[in-house]
Design a protein that fits this description.
The chain contains 4 helices and 8 strands; from the N terminus they run ααββββββββαα. By secondary structure, the protein is an alpha+beta fold. This is Crp/Fnr family transcriptional regulator.
């Protein structure tokens, strides 16, 4: 992921510190499903160690892996946008340590401090844009006829 979407580069120190004040440490074993597409998005994570795969349900096929996430990356953005439902699924590829955030608490902090809220919204928006592009490229790789995604 680009440096502008990882936590260390995405938020000014004061906003990063405020966000981290809402974090709790969690861990997941390899193979653990963290969330499923279509279910309630009530939390999110910043990965400390390990790798998480994002996937997309494809009817009649195995889920398509869209992207792998690692250190410093935001896992989950659906918590930020109503109706707060996961748009992708996620599974730990390896043991994962992460900071977990309660979405309601972060949204409340964003509403309380508009500058903090704008910084979070800008960061999450960058992540969404990056993930949409990654999804498009991955799906073209998997399902489009050879050469159909190229731009001449």
């Amino acid at each position: 992921m680009t440096s502008t979407t990882t936590l260390s580069m995405a938020l000014p120190v004061e906003h990063r510190d405020r966000l981290m004040g809402l974090a709790r440490e969690v861990s997941f074993e390899a193979g653990k499903r963290l969330f499923e597409e279509g279910r309630k998005a009530d939390r999110f994570w910043i990965i400390r160690t390990g790798t998480v795969l994002l996937d997309l349900h494809v009817p009649g096929r195995r889920p398509a892996v869209i992207e792998s996430l690692g250190h410093g990356e935001l896992l989950g953005w659906s918590w930020h946008y109503a109706p707060f439902v996961w748009q992708l699924g996620a599974e730990a590829l390896s043991p994962v340590r992460a900071w977990e955030f309660d979405a309601r608490a972060v949204r409340a902090a964003c509403a309380q401090d508009p500058e903090f809220g704008r910084a979070i919204a800008t960061w999450v928006g960058r992540v969404v844009a990056h993930r949409l592009q990654a999804s498009r490229i991955r799906l073209l790789d998997l399902y489009a006829p050879h050469g159909s995604g190229s731009r001449a």
